[in-house]
């Protein structure tokens, strides 16, 4: 079960990112922006349920 | 199989002699994620590789068991143990399944006039007797076919064989996506049981998918075991094709792998198998490194990093003047089906440094 998701931009490139997904058991995983990835599909479903991905923008 | 005599008419071999089992890890021998998970109330991959648990009611302990049918050559089985009962609401379900890539299914010739039948064989044991449903679901074309089987004797290993007709409608996509689900239903709400069981291929109607299915969650005495799963082309079941352990493991690595010893579950507190890596600075305080995957994965994996203390998202680092734990991140656009690219922020102005930790890679369907 997803608890939170944060969009993390790559160093020196604010156009490329992964999703830091934290599940309710406290596990943090890096999920690619790829529709063939099952965790990305779960994130899309989680967003469709009304949840929001944290996006602090690219920083470096 | 050793050939000792060649008939005068020559040898006739079936289309698929070796690697004829479409199910990976059918003997339940590989369990990289761990051998037991308790208090489970939601779906996921928990124990034996490639087998997914779809759960939205009841509470379960899921494990890799050594309870196996006697004298059949199996050493492990997958086990469901109900620890809190549940009655399904209309849309709830319990399922055990494996999802199969379309590119592995092309020789079934689905969607053509030469579509092949499939035969599923497996050993099963349960304290809950009655009718159970197995479903083959074509995710590319939203079609399915089901067969029922009966567990007639409580707590007794039984071998079941079910044949599913070929389907002349709807081809499987020839790619690495999810095309076929082979599913053992273990409980279902009325949304899945109120129709007529789909014993021929049809466009999926939920009401026809699990008609007659017993509820494995109706007693905390209920257990369900399975092993020796084989899905093969044709209308007869051949003997289970035992693969060498290492070959079986290699097939599983396409979907999931880890740095830990096989016997250590991810998040274990251990330095055994840990990676110590010296890297270069990317100019943004990060130590950057690449590691090729052990085998090419199905797709770009989800990456979970762990330090030796079992904390996820963190790796240990050391450099001139500092050490500690810091966030490890999969480098988007570089991590792919063949490579893991990682950066760890270890601070500014370092000339030499290293990082250390574990990871898991998940490219399951």
Shape of chain B: globular
Return Rg of chain B in Å: 23 Å
Oligomer: heterodimer
The number of E-state strands of chain A comes to 4
Order of helices and strands of chain B: EEEEEEEEEEEEHEEEEEEEEE
Number of DSSP strands of chain B? 21
**What gyration radius of chain A follows from the Cα positions, in whole Å?**
11 Å
Chains forming the largest contact: A-B, 24 and 28 residues
- Read across the widest sheet of chain A, the strand sequence of neighbours is 3-2-1-4
Counted by DSSP, the helix tally of chain B is: 1
Helix percent band of chain A: 10-25%
Q: What's the rounded overall pLDDT mean of chain A?
A: 94
Strand content bin of chain B: 35-45%
Helix content of chain B: under 10%
**Which structural category fits the helices and strands of chain B?**
mainly beta
Outline the low-pLDDT stretches of chain A. none
How far is the first residue's CA from the last residue's CA of chain A?
Answer: 31 Å
Task: Lay out the secondary structure.
The complex is a heterodimer of chains A (60) and B (365).
Chain A: E1 2-10, E2 13-23, E3 28-31, H1 38-48, E4 54-55
Parallel strand pairs in A: 1-4
Antiparallel strand pairs in A: 1-2, 2-3
Chain B: E1 36-40, E2 52-55, E3 59-65, E4 77-84, E5 93-101, E6 118-126, E7 130-138, E8 143-151, E9 158-164, E10 178-188, E11 202-203, E12 223-233, H1 245-253, E13 256-258, E14 275-278, E15 280-281, E16 286-292, E17 302-306, E18 314-319, E19 322-330, E20 339-345, E21 353-362
């Amino acid at each position: 079960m997803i608890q939170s998701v944060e969009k993390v931009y790559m160093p020196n490139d604010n156009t490329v990112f992964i999703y830091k997904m934290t599940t309710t058991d406290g596990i943090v995983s890096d999920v690619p922006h790829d529709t063939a990835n099952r965790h990305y599909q779960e994130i899309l479903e989680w967003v469709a349920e009304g949840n929001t991905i944290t996006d602090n923008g690219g920083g470096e | 199989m050793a050939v000792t005599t060649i008939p005068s008419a020559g040898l006739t071999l079936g289309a698929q002699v070796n690697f004829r089992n479409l199910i990976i890890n059918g003997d339940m021998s590989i369990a990289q994620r761990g051998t037991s998970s308790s208090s489970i109330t939601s779906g996921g991959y928990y124990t034996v590789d490639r087998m997914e648990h779809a759960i939205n009611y009841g509470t379960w302990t899921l494990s890799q068991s050594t309870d196996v049918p006697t004298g059949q050559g199996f050493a492990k089985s997958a086990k469901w143990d109900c620890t809190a009962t549940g009655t399904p609401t209309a849309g709830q379900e319990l399922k055990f399944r494996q999802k199969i890539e379309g590119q592995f299914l092309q020789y079934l010739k689905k969607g053509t006039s030469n579509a092949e039948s499939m035969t599923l064989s497996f050993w099963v044991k349960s304290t809950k007797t009655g009718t159970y449903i197995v479903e083959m679901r074509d995710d590319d074309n939203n079609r399915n076919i089901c067969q029922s089987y009966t567990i007639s004797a409580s707590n007794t290993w039984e071998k079941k064989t079910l044949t599913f007709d070929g389907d002349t409608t709807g081809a499987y996509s020839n790619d690495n996506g999810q095309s076929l689900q082979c599913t053992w239903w273990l409980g279902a709400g009325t949304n899945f049981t109120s129709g007529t069981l789909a014993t021929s291929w049809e466009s999926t109607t939920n009401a026809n998918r699990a008609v007659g299915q017993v509820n494995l969650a109706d007693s905390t005495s209920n257990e369900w075991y399975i092993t020796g799963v084989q899905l093969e082309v044709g209308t007869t079941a051949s003997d289970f094709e035992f693969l060498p352990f290492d070959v079986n493991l290699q097939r599983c690595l396409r979907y999931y792998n880890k740095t830990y010893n096989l016997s250590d579950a991810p998040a274990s507190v251990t330095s055994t198998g840990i990676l110590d890596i010296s890297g270069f600075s990317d100019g943004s305080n990060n130590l950057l490194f690449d590691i090729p995957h052990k085998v090419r994965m199905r797709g770009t994996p989800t990456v979970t990093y762990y330090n030796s203390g079992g904390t996820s998202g963190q790796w240990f680092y050391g450099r001139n003047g500092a050490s500690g734990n810091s966030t490890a991140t999969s480098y988007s656009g570089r991590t792919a089906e063949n490579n893991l690219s990682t950066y760890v922020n270890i601070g500014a102005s370092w000339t030499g440094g290293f990082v250390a930790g574990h990871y898991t890679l998940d490219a399951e369907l």
